Amino acid sequence: MHIFFGTPQGKDRFLIQGEEFQHFKARRIRKGEPIGIIWGGNVYLCEPESIGKIEAVCLVKGRLGSKKPSVSVTLYQAVPVELKTFDLIIQKSTELGVMKVVPLITGRSFRNRHVLMKRMHRWTRIYREAMKQSGRAYELDISEPMEVGSLEPEHELNILLDNFYEGEPLGAMNLKGVRDVGLVVGPEGGFSEEESEALRDKGFISVKLEPHTLRTETAAIVGVGIIVNLAGS
Ligand code: SAH
Q1: Which residue ranges of the chain lie beneath pLDDT 50?
Q2: I need a labelling partner for 39 at 20 to 30 A (CA). Which of 20, 207, 211, 233 fits?
Q3: pTM for the full model?
């Protein structure tokens, strides 16, 4: 089923307008065809009742729900030097139910803050597209870039993904019932020794992923996937 963003009209209708209406038309949706409309943290089952030149009016038929993972994951992701990789991380984070992504500036990451701020609009477009594709009704919070030195272990569980760590893998951790996780992922060149030591001293727990060294985007996707699927109650 196709899903769009809508704006409410009266008690039981939504309008699809602007850019969303362009998408709607491109998909050749007909009157009466069931579609989903995202609004206010919910997905509604709707049927277009009139399709005009600039908008479609859709009647609400029911609510498809407002699923959310029971664990809130904040991903502190070192920005890859190949900046386009961050697009993929935003898309997959949306599909996987991450609540917040914090672009992290480290010694070996992409470091130009100004360029990152200019990317916000593009990332918003990417996560909203991923929301529709995955039927996710709540927004992804993308915060302003942050220096790794300012990172504090402010979550219930604060994890540092660390490919040099020899101990317990993430998959073996008891994540049952955990509700709030901060996950830190390094850049392609890894964290410097000082950076990872400082994070550990602050209280971040080093954890590895099996079996090999992963690219930063793979580590982020797998890490989040494990947490979202194993945590919560
Ligand atoms: N070039 C570095 C690898 C960095 S991989 C090296 O040679 O060591 C990029 C980031 O992904 C790492 O900083 C870490 O946060 C995460 N990562 C990659 N593979 C991992 C693994 N097997 N276990 C835990 N974290 C991993």
Answers
A1: none
A2: 233
A3: 0.95
